[in-house]
Amino acid sequence: MRRPVIGIAGTYEQAPASSAFPTLRRIFTNEGYSSCLQAVGALVILLSPTTTNIEQLIQLCDGVLFAGGADIDPSCYQQERTPLCGPSDLDTDTFHLALYHQGRQAGKPILGICRGMQLINVAEGGTLYQDYKKREGWSIHHPDLEHWNNASHLVKIKQDSILFSILKKPELGVNSLHHQLVDTPSDALKVTANASDGSIEAFEAIDGSWCVGVQWHPETLGEAMDSLFEAFVREASLQ
Length: 239
Ligand SMILES: [Mn+2]
Hints:
By secondary structure, this protein is α/β, with parallel strands linked by helices. It has one domain (5-237): Rossmann fold. The protein has helices at 31-39, 54-59, 90-105, 115-123, 162-167, 226-237; strands at 5-9, 11-14, 25-28, 43-47, 63-66, 110-113, 128-129, 153-157, 171-174, 181-182, 189-195, 200-205, 211-214. A 9-stranded mixed beta sheet has the order 4-1-5-6-13-12-11-8-9, sandwiched between helices. A two-stranded antiparallel ribbon has the order 2-3. Strand 12 (200-205) and strand 13 form a beta hairpin. The longest helix is centred in the middle third of the chain and has 16 residues, at 90-105. The structure holds manganese (II) ion. The site of manganese (II) ion has 7 residues, from loops.
């Protein structure tokens, strides 16, 4: 049986000094995204940011995943870099933004995780906090690497959402591995989950199409998040 094909947007990274090619640039994603998708029936391909023919690349995919990763260059949302902004890679950002727009135009389901959620917002014209401490009223330390694979803080999920129809819980403990946050959400998106300090933790396309962003990392939360990957891959199988 043909498996739905999920393309993961590949990221440029400098190979580590310990590797066989320490001076070279790499194309990568974390293995967890791929294995979670494969476990629920997808065939996963890593989309190379060297690609210039984005339209043809998207035609290979039934759905696109934008994964976690480095900060997005603030120029992508018309801001000057501030000292709290982490390293970014404009080549990766440019590729991901083009991939997103082409994917949406082609009607492909899209899942954005952490940076991927922020990427969706930026692509749709929204802005980010360059660091969570820039948000007035913050009370949760969102970068909580210690609890990378279990609950760090609660989120409240709005019932009128694709996300709720999948997770079926009004409140949920999630991990939190981000230091940036959505500031102004795009008009094209509706917020579907907030943390108790009010920060935006999930959104989806306002038009009801399958474009879902979550600020947490479902790929390290185990079975609790199988239903999210399943729903994404099921939607992709309808392509
Ligand atoms: Mn968080």
